[in-house]
Amino acid sequence: MSKKRRFIAHAASPMANGHGAANDNIHTNPCLSCGACCAHFRVSFYCGEIAGEDGNGVPPELVSQAGPLRACMKGTETGGQRCVALRGEIGKEGIHCAIYPKRPSPCRDFPAWEADGTPNPDCQKVRAKFGLPALPHIGHDDDIDPGNTPRHRDSEAA
Ligand code: SF4
Ligand code: SF4
Fold first, then answer.
1. For the chain, what are the domain ranges?
2. Pair 7, 113: CB distance under 8 Å
3. DSSP strand E in the chain: where?
4. What is the signed CA dihedral for 79, 82, 85, 89, rounded to 10 degrees?
5. How do residues 12-22 score in pLDDT, each as one tens digit?
6. Does ligand 1 come within 6 angstroms of the Cβ of 149?
7. 8 A C-beta contact, residue 23 and residue 34
8. Is any atom of ligand 2 closer than 6 Å to the C-beta of 81?
């Protein structure tokens, strides 16, 4: 499965003028004060990821149908809009995914950095759209969380 979310063209952001918020976690986990990818991409996935009676999976009330076997996070159907599960203000401390342990695979598979420490170019582009600073290259000794979308500080890792 591709690690990249599907890119959808969108209108310019009101924050694209470079007046984005401070990004204090940029060297540890930039996702904790970002959330840009959750307000930009169309987040679609196989419908088998939707929770069944056991409750394991993406909550069904938060998804819309995107095809015979495809689902999409509500709000992201056309791209350029916030996911319904995103809480907080883009680029600000405290932004997080309300269903972090149950988020779908495109969210789990979208990294801030590649395995070699290179910033994910798609992450960089969407951060720039919201006026957030570029991520640095990182070394193997850096104490960082590789990220992939904004968890709440109290969220169970998943
Ligand atoms: S993966 Fe990139 S765009 Fe998404 S929240 Fe983290 S830093 Fe922001
Ligand atoms: S990580 Fe959460 S808020 Fe972000 S797109 Fe995925 S489900 Fe939505």
1. 1-109+116-125
2. no
3. 44-46, 63-67, 70-73, 86-87, 96-97
4. 150
5. 222 222 223 33
6. yes
7. yes
8. no
